[in-house]
Write a structure and sequence with these properties.
The protein is an alpha+beta fold. The chain has 28 helices and 21 strands. The strands form six sheets. Strands 1, 2, 3, 4, 5 and 6 form a six-stranded mixed beta sheet that branches.
């Protein structure tokens, strides 16, 4: 125990803490020692060894002194006689808040693989939002507990390993604290897959003793060479953990294809020295082809920077060597913890860590506002903790996305306006469909049109919750606005029919009565309900003047039983036989446009859906069809309709410019354009916004004049 304490103080001095900070750390240790005196851990160690080890692990991450103090005293309440008030009086408000948050997280236990996982994550994230140091101490505590887990029952080991694997390791990975993540992974692997652990050990190209000998020999040779060249450096080495090897084998690699079982890391002062060191290593050992990676000039999306090379070391064993500066190493190894290490002279580290933490804050904010069910929360967390890919904008900016993301996800990550107006995507200079799965290092360019809008079909393939939420929000707002406007028009028309002036009907008294009787929050909600056909306008007028609360007209019955001539609403596009105040939608399957021959299909509770007469979806539904007509007297000349066509080509690619040019000449707006392969030929699926059938037909005829176009079909 004394040795541990001395080791902690030595590390604190190495970290550059002031004399005052070290004195406060000593006070915290003495306080913790007094609180835990006489108490034993379940493995028969003195209890004080746990907070000491946790503090030492935190110190190895170069955190601030407040984290060390909090780590030392974090168990003095739950496993001692102290209180939050006492901790605040002795060590300040900051330490008290960290300890309080840790207590909240530590008191939640997982009892099996799935129970309470979402609740556990919520509490962890809430604690994290308060102070990231809470999570650093939590992770450090788990590392020490896992190191000493083996005396416990197999079942307790299993449950702890599951909790660590499912919750804490992914969060450590997301925050970039690789030093702790790697150790936790290997312990969990040994506990949960002990047979696989042994199998990997037996499959190594040599015994661990032999591999360590190769490591040390390579290390000594490189040290001698670098000293001769007057380079200031640190060098570290390791033999790859069994869990890391197993992960690579699980992805289909053979043991002979894993070149980093023996690894060395060289940490120098200057970026220019990194390249010099690689050159010296290549002069000592023969490089392995295609194993050199320059992540300094082209950093990974998680801001990781380093030079990697593979060489054939002593006796032909492959050795991976990584070379990076101290600052690069802090980001790579310590993640958010490195925020304190370089806080006085590096804004880069703070920016990197802020990006990592912002992803968690976004989930917390969404949780507090909208996300209340476990399924939705789990979906958000699954995205946050999943494997990431890193893609680039044409300007070289890095965008991080979950694996399986598509160009639409990318567009919404750039800006909601970019997402809303997306019409196509070019990846690595090739047009791709919007549902294309992006890969690491793709360069993505989004094509936009200011007149375009999102497509509801995007919800079938976007990956990120951000994109899904933005698309749903767009249509929710659009539908709401359209329903309110439709409701206002219907109500005003009904008032006019009953010879009631709008100003007298819609005064404060009548509006307040409607809002109260219908139990809604405001008058817009009344109009929304009229526009959505939940209430007829005549019912609302009756309610205003006659207190008639239990009568609702059934518009669809009125339509189906009507024998009157069609009525025309000049503000609407469609004329329906027998009714002028019913909800009318254009079918998404055949997408009719003004001028097409059309027919109406009666949908109970949803008004009438208008199809093209030749639409296969209404071919055999005569009993629910009704005559509808385009309103030739409509007064909205700027009304656009959505249409979809497929352009089949002779196989030549990159003809998008010719298509876009034709659309521009005709005044046709392209909502989206996707390149697809049908029958071995390159085709383009186009979603268009057109004013009428004549314009669409003319555009199609223009496209037929292009040499590469073989045929065109419309849906």
């Amino acid at each position: 125990m004394e040795k541990l304490y001395e080791e902690l103080l030595k590390k604190c001095e190495e970290n550059g803490y002031s004399d005052e900070e070290i004195e406060n750390i000593k006070r915290a240790y003495e306080f913790a020692y007094k609180c835990h005196k006489g108490k034993m851990r379940k493995n028969n160690e003195e209890f004080i060894t746990h907070p000491l080890n946790v503090a030492l692990i935190c110190a190895s991450l170069n955190v601030d002194s407040t984290t060390i103090i909090s780590a030392l005293v974090h168990e003095t309440i739950d496993n001692g006689p102290s209180s939050l008030e006492e901790i605040e009086s002795l060590f300040g408000e900051e330490v008290m808040h960290i300890v309080s948050s840790l207590m909240k997280v530590n008191r939640l236990k997982l009892t099996d693989e799935s129970e309470s996982t979402s609740l556990y994550l919520r509490k962890v994230l809430v604690a994290l939002s308060e102070d990231v140091r809470v999570l650093i101490i939590k992770l450090a505590g788990r590392v020490h507990n896992m190191r000493t887990i083996y005396p416990f029952s197999k079942e307790k080991q299993r449950l702890k390993a599951i909790e660590t694997q499912n919750v804490l390791i992914p969060i450590a990975h997301r925050l970039g604290i690789n030093q702790l993540k790697t150790e936790l992974e290997d312990i969990c692997f040994r506990v949960l897959k002990n047979e696989d652990y042994k199998s990997v050990e037996e499959s190594l190209p040599a015994s661990r003793e032999k591999l360590n000998e190769i490591l040390e020999e390579t290390k000594e040779t490189i040290i001698e060479e670098l000293k001769q060249n007057n380079i200031s450096f640190e060098i570290k080495g390791r033999v790859k953990s069994n869990s890391s090897i197993y992960n690579k084998l699980s992805k289909g690699k053979k043991m002979s294809e894993i070149y980093d079982i023996i690894g060395l890391r060289i940490i120098c002062e200057e970026e220019s020295e990194c390249y010099l060191i690689i050159g010296l290593i290549h002069s000592l050992y023969r490089p392995i082809p295609k194993r050199f990676k320059d992540y300094i000039s082209m950093p990974k999306g998680n801001s990781y920077q380093s030079l990697h090379t593979g060489v054939f070391g002593p006796e032909g064993f492959p050795v991976e060597v990584q070379v990076r500066t101290k600052e690069m190493n802090e980001i790579a190894e310590h993640g958010v913890a490195s925020h304190w290490s370089y806080k006085e002279h590096s804004k880069q580290i703070q920016n990197v860590m802020e990006q990592k933490l912002q992803m968690f804050r976004n989930i917390i904010e969404a949780n507090s506002n909208d996300i209340t069910d476990d399924d939705t929360f789990a979906q958000n967390m699954s995205e946050l903790l999943s494997t990431s890919i890193y893609v680039y904008t044409p300007k070289g900016d890095v965008v991080e996305l979950p694996e399986g993301s598509c160009p639409v996800d990318f567009a919404y990550r750039i800006h909601s306006r970019v997402g809303d107006t997306t019409i196509g995507a070019i990846v690595n200079d090739t047009i791709v469909p919007l549902d294309y799965h992006l890969q690491d290092n793709d360069i993505v360019k989004i094509m936009t049109n200011a007149q375009s809008e999102p497509n509801k079909d995007w919800l079938n393939f976007v990956k990120t919750t951000q994109a899904k939420a933005k698309i749903k929000a767009f249509f929710s707002k659009k539908d709401r606005e359209e329903y309110i406007e439709r409701g206002r028009n219907l109500l005003e028309k009904e008032l006019k029919r009953q010879h009631i002036t709008v100003s007298s009907a819609l005064d404060d008294e009548h509006i307040n009565k409607l809002v109260s009787d219908l139990k809604v929050t405001n008058f817009d909600e009344v109009l929304l309900n009229i526009g959505a056909l939940r209430y007829t306008p005549s019912y609302i007028v009756d309610l205003m003047y006659n207190d008639k609360k239990n009568v609702q007209d059934v518009l669809l019955d009125k339509v189906m039983n009507s024998s009157t001539l069609p009525k025309v609403n000049h503000k609407n596009d469609i004329v329906v036989s027998g009714c002028d105040d019913i909800l009318v939608n254009l079918a998404s399957c055949c997408k009719p446009v003004f001028g097409d021959e059309i027919i109406g299909y009666i949908t109970k509770g949803q008004g009438i859906t208008v199809h093209k007469k030749d639409c296969v979806n209404v071919k055999d539904l005569n009993e629910r069809l009704i005559d509808v007509y385009w309103n030739e007297n409509r007064n909205d000349e700027n009304k656009y309709y959505i249409s979809k066509i497929t352009v089949y080509t002779n196989g030549v690619q990159n003809n998008i410019l010719d298509i876009v040019t034709k659309s521009t000449v005709r005044g046709i707006n392209i909502n989206s354009i996707n390149e697809v392969n049908k029958g071995g030929k390159v085709c383009y699926d186009l979603i268009l916004k057109v004013k009428n059938k004549a314009d669409l037909d003319n555009f199609i005829e223009d496209l037929r004049t292009l040499k590469f176009v073989t045929s065109i079909s419309r849906y």
